[in-house]
Peptidoglycan-associated lipoprotein (Porticoccus litoralis), 168 residues
Amino acid sequence: MKTQLLKYGAIISFMAALLSGCSTTGSDEDASASTTMPSQSVTTGTVSTQDVSGTTLGTDSAVARVFYFEFDKAVLNAESRAALRLHAEWLKAHPAVNIRLEGHADERGTREYNMALGERRANSVRDFLIQEGVNAAVMEVISYGEESPAAMGSNEASWALNRRVEMK
């Protein structure tokens, strides 16, 4: 009986050690390293406006049309809000122009979760434009989730470029 208890105890200890070695919770240091990156690593650019009804956005080409997000977030940063205010002014002055807001996510997470996250991000941009006075009827929201990456790779630099909304 004593031998059998020792054997079960050893098996349970081994299984506990094995399971705890497989799980990671990440430290605060790991979490901050995966969610922040130097600002010079993220660039903005223009996006093609083909297949969008109406005319092209007439705002200055230096105004961002791609808006980036933090990991697992759908909150606009100050830079994005400033650019969107300029787009909102132009869109209010040109009510016949329709735009498409395409939400994207990086490859982490399930396909379904990333589709929903891309939609939340695009809706975040849409809601901001509505608050700025743009007619909701001229905006279309679509999510591509992780299906249309801007950058290939499984590293923070690539993931940061894939967490975006493109205004077309």
